[in-house]
Design goal:
0% strand
């Protein structure tokens, strides 16, 4: 396994962990009806999705090269 692939896999694992935390925050914010926490959770979910997409792209580029 080369360094680029390992970096991509770690990035993907980090994005999954971030998404899990964001969804937990989303559920808690909805339960408390906290608009600010809900906005934060939605932004965190967007960050996790973007991170996962970047990691997948990096893995695919490494695969094709």
């Amino acid at each position: 396994m080369n360094i680029k692939k390992a970096r991509g896999l770690l990035g993907l694992a980090g994005a999954v962990a971030g998404a899990a935390g964001a969804f937990s925050g989303f559920k808690a914010a909805r339960a408390k009806n906290d608009k600010l926490a809900l906005a934060n959770a939605i932004a965190s979910i967007a960050v996790a999705i973007t991170g996962a997409a970047l990691a997948v792209r990096a893995l695919r580029k490494d695969e094709l090269a």
